[in-house]
């Protein structure tokens, strides 16, 4: 269940009336990892994130991938939903994970995917890489039509107005997948996590549409999945633009039916 109906009071035209409002649900999800170390089974509680329930397995695996902890599907032996709000990723015995560089205070809000980081250096989790290829190209007509396609698919957003979406498209504008969440970073982790579990990474033949603004953390996650083109309905942050330019990612903001701003990677735009 992604929504809840609550009684509220609405003030309109100088009158106060009682009504019912549909709200997007926000609940904590604890992500833990079970692994073999020194002949013993150990568990590390990686993070608590505030999210919209649903696709928890994808969210957990996408989060671990974009944080640089997991690199390939065979590293996961099992995924356990221990409770409504707890997911445990069981790693295969041969998988060796170094948690020393991954320090969090175990809490991430729905609005910030890097708030739990304990050092500036730990924010940068990018694999060494640079989008040098310009074989992936997309037309401006496709870009300006993305929002309309996404809005038609956002059923929960239409009823609540409270969810972010991350949508994956082919260069021809065909929707390959969409995830929603109260947290924009969670929506993207869910999307990437589903592709990770399907063993369809890297996503270098797709473009990403974000229903809100393009923050640094979202550009970083997209880069981890090797997505060459990111289109956002809202504005990018200065650090997001700086990161996109440094790796030659194509970044567009304020994408509307007849306009957009191009911040980097113009060579991929037809």
What does this protein structure show overall?
There is one protein chain. The protein is α/β, with parallel strands linked by helices and 270 residues long. The chain has 2 domains: 27-123, Ubiquitin-like (UB roll), CATH 3.10.20; 140-268, Cytidine Deaminase, domain 2. The chain has helices spanning 56-66, 140-144, 146-153, 155-160, 184-197, 216-224, 238-246, and strands spanning 3-12, 15-24, 27-37, 40-51, 76-83, 86-91, 164-169, 175-181, 207-210, 229-232, 250-256, 259-264. The strands form 3 sheets. A 6-stranded mixed sheet has the order 8-7-9-10-11-12, with helices on both faces. Strands 4-3-6-5 form a 4-stranded mixed sheet, covered by helices on one side. Helix 1 crosses helix 5 (184-197) and helix 5 (184-197) runs parallel beside helix 6 (216-224). The termini are far apart.
SS field, number of helical segments: 7
- Classified in CATH, the superfamily of the largest domain is Cytidine Deaminase, domain 2
H/E element order: EEEEHEEHHHEEHEHEHEE
Q: Uncertain regions: pLDDT < 50 for 5+ in a row?
A: 116-123
Measure the end-to-end span: 41 Å
Rounded Rg: 19 Å
Mean pLDDT: 88
Strand order of the largest sheet: 8-7-9-10-11-12
State the helical fraction: 10-25%
- CATH architecture annotation name of the largest domain: 3-Layer(aba) Sandwich
Major beta sheet, specifics? 6 strands, mixed
Counting copies of identical and different chains, the oligomeric state is single chain
| CATH class type of the largest domain | Alpha Beta
Task: Label this structure with key terms.
alpha/beta, six-stranded mixed beta sheet, Cytidine Deaminase, domain 2, 270 residues, Ubiquitin-like (UB roll), four-stranded mixed beta sheet
């Amino acid at each position: 269940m992604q929504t809840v109906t609550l009684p509220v009071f609405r003030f309109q035209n100088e009158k106060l009336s009682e009504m019912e409002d549909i709200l997007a649900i926000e609940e904590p999800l604890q992500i833990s990892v079970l692994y073999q170390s020194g002949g013993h089974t150990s568990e590390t509680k990686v993070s608590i994130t505030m999210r919209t329930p649903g696709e928890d397995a994808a969210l957990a695996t996408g989060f671990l991938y974009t944080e640089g902890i997991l690199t390939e599907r065979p590293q996961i032996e099992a995924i356990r939903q221990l409770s409504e709000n707890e997911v445990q990723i069981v790693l295969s015995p041969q998988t060796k994970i170094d948690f020393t560089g991954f320090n969090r205070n175990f809490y991430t809000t729905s609005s910030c995917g890097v708030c739990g980081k304990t050092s500036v250096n730990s924010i940068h989790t990018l694999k060494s890489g640079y989008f040098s290829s310009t074989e992936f190209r997309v037309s401006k007509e496709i870009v300006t039509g993305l929002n309309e396609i996404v809005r038609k698919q956002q059923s929960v957003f239409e009823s609540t107005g409270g969810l972010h979406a991350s949508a994956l498209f082919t260069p021809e504008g065909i929707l390959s997948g969409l995830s929603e969440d109260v947290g924009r970073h969670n929506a993207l982790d869910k999307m990437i996590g589903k592709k990770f579990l399907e063993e369809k990474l890297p996503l270098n033949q797709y473009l990403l549409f974000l229903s809100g603004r393009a923050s640094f953390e979202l550009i970083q996650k997209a880069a981890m999945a090797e997505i060459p083109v990111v289109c956002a309905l809202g504005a990018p942050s200065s650090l997001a633009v700086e990161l996109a330019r440094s790796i030659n990612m194509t970044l567009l903001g304020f994408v509307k039916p007849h306009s957009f701003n191009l911040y980097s990677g113009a060579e991929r735009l037809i």
